[in-house]
Amino acid sequence: KRRIAVMTSGGDAPGMNGAVRAVVRMSIAQGCEAYAVYEGYEGLVQGGDMIREMKWDDVRGFLSRGGTVIGTARCMSFKERWGRLKAAKNMVIKGIDALIVCGGDGSLTGADLFRAEWPGLVDELVEKKELTAEQVEPFKHLNIVGMVGSIDNDMAMTDATIGCYSSLDRICESVDWIDATAESHQRAFVVEVMGRHCGWLALMAGISCGADFVIIPENPPSGNWEEEMCKVIKKVRVLTLLMTPQANTLKHRGLGKRKTVVIVAEGAIDTNLKKIPCTVIKDLLTNKLHLDTRITTLGHTQRGGSPCAYDRMLSTLQGAEAVKAVLEATPSTPSPVISIVENKIVREPLLEAVKQTQEVAKAIEAKDFARAMSLRNAEFTE
Ligand code: F6P
């Protein structure tokens, strides 16, 4: 029976468990044996009990669980050739020649490199007499299939990454909670959201929560943006000047809005690529508009917790497609990444997707922000 392994790597994302469940069950349904690699690449390098067979029942209840049950880790040894050599040996010993990885672009690039090196690695294992020629004979090629698990939605060639909509839901819920207290005290909140160098979460949260201002790395605020921001806020806000000696006497009613929310992506930068910390926004709101301002960093609450319906559906459909991709792969097929494009589950060339993702970072570095914005997926730019 063909043996297919599944692994989660990089930062956890809601829906990763759904992906593992789908791979395990689809593999079994297709007459294969399913294996889970625990703790990401670390488990592949360590081998033994870290690579375990998974039966149908072993993934029961996975669909609604947050994080990744099989674990993930940052692994330095897999970045070294000796680590990958050990990983190859462990896979051959377990009789596995197909690996489905759910992770971010770094994890998927690592997997493709492993595939490219694979024939050399198994030859070396035979030369070093760690494995026999007979043992490696059925394992001349490695199949790699990627699925993008990340809350950041920062991967090119897919409309959504597994986890991004759960995270967005969590942010919306949190901002709703913040709204209640903000309105009560007529306060302003600067809310920092995750996303690494990607502004998708911040921008979508801004739209979903009706924030007053949003700052994202791909389109840094320029010109006299500080004035602009204050103007936009002042237009709608009740300003009771709570922080001045004239409190409650001077009143600007605006359009009657009692709270202000500015969403700042954690990767927010100015046009000189200098980080814009939340404190800068807080100081502006305090000093120019006299708003009683607080900063809330949502942090890892955005990453944990159970996946939303969309992520359960996405991870399940993609996991099933990943197994199909393994079974249809030939030694010359480029490694695919399973994507969703215009609501269809599709296979895209993994390396091309990674390359296009890196183009955004390059555009930002070159201060070509128009290009950075246009390179992000359609949902983002429209
Ligand atoms: O990539 C997911 C993410 O949550 C980013 O949004 C964030 O920048 C990063 O991971 C935080 O990573 P960690 O706290 O795991 O080092």
TrEMBL record:
UniProt binding sites for Mg(2+): D105
Subunit structure: Homotetramer.
Subcellular location: Cytoplasm
Protein name as it appears in the record: ATP-dependent 6-phosphofructokinase
Binding site for substrate: S150, I151, D152, R187, M194, G195, R196, E266, R294, H300, T301, Q302, R303
Every Phosphofructokinase domain range: 3-326
UniProt region (N-terminal catalytic PFK domain 1), positions on chain: 1-382
Active site per database record: D152
Family (UniProt): Belongs to the phosphofructokinase type A (PFKA) family. ATP-dependent PFK group I subfamily. Eukaryotic two domain clade 'E' sub-subfamily.
Function: Catalyzes the phosphorylation of D-fructose 6-phosphate to fructose 1,6-bisphosphate by ATP, the first committing step of glycolysis.
Transmembrane segments: none
Binding site for ATP: G11, R74, C75, G104, D105, G106, S107
Domain of life: Eukaryota
Entire-sequence positions represented here: 14 to 395 of 789
